[in-house]
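Section 3.1: Structural characterization of target chains.
Under the original work plan, the team committed to producing a structural model for every single-chain target entering the pipeline before any wet-lab resources were allocated. The record below documents one such target. The sequence was received from the expression subgroup and is listed exactly as submitted; it comprises 377 residues.
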Amino acid sequence: MGVLGGGQLGKMLAQAANNWHLPLFLLDTDSSFPAGRVSPFFTAGNFKDYDDVYQFGKDKQVLTIEIEHVNTEALHQLEKEGVKVHPAPAKLDIIKDKGLQKQFYAEHNIPTSPFALYTNEEAVRKAVASGERSLPFVQKSRTAGYDGRGVSIIRSEADLEAKLLPGPCMIEDLVEMDKEIAVIVARNESGQTQAFPAVEMAFNPEANLVEFLFCPANISKEVEAKAEALAAQVINAYRICGLLAVELFLDKEGNLLVNEVAPRPHNSGHHTIDSCYTSQFEQHLRAILNLPLGSTKMKSPSVMVNLLGAPGHTGPAYYKHLEECLKIEGAHFHLYGKSTTKPFRKMGHATIVDESLERAVGKARWIQEKLEIVSGS
């Protein structure tokens, strides 16, 4: 079994595979990357390059990904030659392009916010000038965006000049949200689906990436049931095998709208390692190998906090005050092994489990304030 990508998600997939003594082969630029520290089956190569992906995959029985931005032309060829590829490259082609992704939801009657596609930033300005598009709105680059990159919120005429992203893009209405939630759902080749409990996401306003995840989400049982059903609807529409992280908006009227999806293990499921009967990483392996899916029940409430590089620091990573944070009961630390820290770079995460979600939140906020990931020593 091969994985395209050797970052922290590849690392945690390899750790889950090791529990079953299952060799996991990984492809990425350098074996010093997080997954290279835990798997002896690491190949140096570029997962965006046709030849590297083809040569890596041709002797594998199953291929999967830990990042969407891979060479799908090679995956199409490998699929023709009998390699099982999960997610299927045809579905990956849709999901990689946020414009095609939104069109997919419209075609399959999946609720999402109104949107329009534009060839470049100048076309967006013309649409605003003509009255076709009104402010405010959200602009997303159609490809290559992740962790807050490739997203810009345009609220004013000044933003039109300073914040518009270049190139092909998708524009959607700025939804008046009550909450942002996510549901990780799995599906195997037999068609069995299983959803993890919904999580509530809190974002860093400066970096526009997730700071905290709260599980269970502070939503009604009715809304949670609808969210899980919607996630199952989406993964069945795609007919994807493996995991699908479904990010959702809950608007002020109580409607659920699909924001976007990721067809792989995801930041919104990291807490499952410590707080659920089955981790998202084991579940992904079960799904792509067409094994029975594991229980997604929670063992306890949990909060996940992303451990981000401190602003103003670039260089060798040093975890300041880690010893004090390790004294916190119920705190589980997962450091990714990235040698260099950068401002707001994901360097690890901590999951705090507690019988009380409120206490777990307090501990998570204390850890976030105390632990600094800086350069030097």
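Residues 221-238 form the longest helix (18 residues).
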